[in-house]
Design a protein that fits this description.
By secondary structure, this protein is an all-alpha fold. Helix content is 91%, strand content 0%. Keywords: Membrane, Transmembrane, Transmembrane helix.
């Protein structure tokens, strides 16, 4: 019983491609989330500053 190398590499290629999509999706989501957090943090700081000065 012998498995052709092409089939094995094909399977690994599919897995790596799927992993790549998954990783890029996670990175994009975390980047978007951090951007949202930074924006809300900036709004909070500017509001706190404005409230303190006025």
């Amino acid at each position: 019983m012998n498995f052709p190398d092409q089939k094995i590499s094909e399977g690994f290629g599919r897995v790596s491609v799927h992993g790549l999509f998954l990783t890029s999706g996670i990175v994009l989501m975390s980047w978007f989330k951090s951007g949202e957090i930074l924006r809300s943090l900036g709004d909070f700081i500017s509001k706190a500053r404005g409230g303190g000065s006025s």
